[in-house]
Amino acid sequence: MSGTFTKSMARNIFYGGSAFFVLLFLALSFDTTQALPKRDNRDAITPQVALGKKVWEENNCIGCHTLLGEGAYFAPELGNVYTRRGPDFIKTWLKIQPTGTPGRRQMPQFNLNDEELDAIVAFLKYSSEINAAKWPPNIEG
Amino acid sequence: MQYQSQAVAKPYFIAAIGLFIGQILFGLVMGLQYVMGDFLFPEIPFNVARMVHTNLLIVWLLFGFMGSAYYLVPEESETELHSPKLALALFWIFLVAGALTVLGYLLVPYAGLAKMTGNDLLPTMGREFLEQPTITKVGIVIVALGFLFNIGMTILKGRKTSVSLVLLIGLVGLAVMFLFSFYNPVNLVKDKFFWWWTVHLWVEGVWELIMASILAFVLIKITGVDREVIEKWLYVIIAMALITGIIGTGHHYYWIGTPEYWQWWGSVFSAMEPIPFFMMTVFAFNMVNRRRRNHPNKAAMLWALGTAVMAFLGAGVWGFLHTLAPVNYYTHGTQITAAHGHMAFYGAYVMIVLTMISYAMPMMRGRAAANSEKSQVLEMWSFWLMTVSIVFITLFLTAAGVLQVWLQRYSDAPQAFMVVQDKIALFYWMRETAGVIFLIGLVLYVMSFFVGSKDPEAVQV
User: Fold this and answer.
1) Which of A5, A57, A141 lies at the smallest CB-CB distance from B123?
2) Which end of chain A is more exposed for a tag (fewer CB within 10 A), N or C?
């Protein structure tokens, strides 16, 4: 870089540029929080959904599955599993794991009780109704 | 080594390398589970292996960053570290807490670990990369505060250089953004929105400051180029990193329930995120070409050039590959993401830590400037084996990802997830093979610390 462009100019671009974009990011984030109530399906959050999220987290479901495309890529997307499979399938599926089929990927048995099974279904139903800009592209997730 | 207290970096680096080995072993377990689904089941289910793999990576990189800071800051500040005792105490606290957490993952079912550690009081567990029990997270904050105090006091009492200042800003940012890991609302969209404030603003934000400042430090040392020139580059690079990377967070806000204007903000700004990485490559090669001395530590120079190139490829090119919203619509949450993740983390953060270790370790082990010729040759072999392996891991995962996108997302008759996984198994086998070669490279890397250590030091040519 040429002699006319000095270190202090570079430093000022760093401080000024960063400060500007931090503020812009905060402004956009504030606007997002204002816009969220129309998109994030918050009216559907019940104590049962809250319990479902806790069951989801405390069994580390994200360690194999994705939820709205985020997580691990070892097992199917679950953001739309409620629409793909329906509530009864999900509960039965969770109860009969692991399949034990030789060579197949295995899902652990989490020993959930009926209340927890219903809660995880409620959480996945709530997740499936979040407005995610038409993602995923199709029902297979 | 100019200051006695720089030696506290040594245990940090040793721990980092030890945990690195663990990370790779669990990576190989997962790679095998991709194709032999019931391997080690139910002893180590995939989700446990993945948690260990990713958490070990984070922890060993943090060990590497802290070790680098303990080595770099006294030398830049031209004074002894404020408290070497504190640094050593924090080392043991962090190591024991990390080891207990990993043992918890491996020995107790995750739900049991949540119960044991009182996750109910402040639920933060069960989110990707932030799986640590809340108590471990509190421990991380305490260690980070003690570490920042130690580093900050050292900088305050000594010479203040741009390199140490940028490093400090990066480290403070790391600690501050981690605090968002404690915010876990039931509202999934808000949870995800702020989860990225830790995850994205770490790896595509403040960590880039840490990386750039360490690279600048090593380049000053091994090339002898005037500090003014290097620090000017440093500021321009990190300016571009934050200018593009902060709004670039928007590329995670396409499909998680956030407003759709993020598709524009995210696409435009994250498309520019390769720029600072490209500048880093130009910078590293430029400084090496203009070098005023031929440093005898050729291995360190190789790592420094390597990290600049691989960070650009992994974070820059492979990030750009799937960052535009219309592309990401199809690639989001596929093996494309995994491909990018592997090369970006290796290129930017694994290699910068190994650069620093390569530069500093010989001095901490009593050499004047560099290891023997023999041990450097071995280290450079390990560089090439690991780097070429990660390129192939990335290429195979990319191929798997393209097929996955095509079969599962894009074609007229989309197929089910597991049906598609079976069809792309060949690429997972090849990825696993490349992973084994990576492990061989890592073994050579560890050996390079012992082979030729009795031989005379390599000399300047």
Assistant:
1) A57
2) N
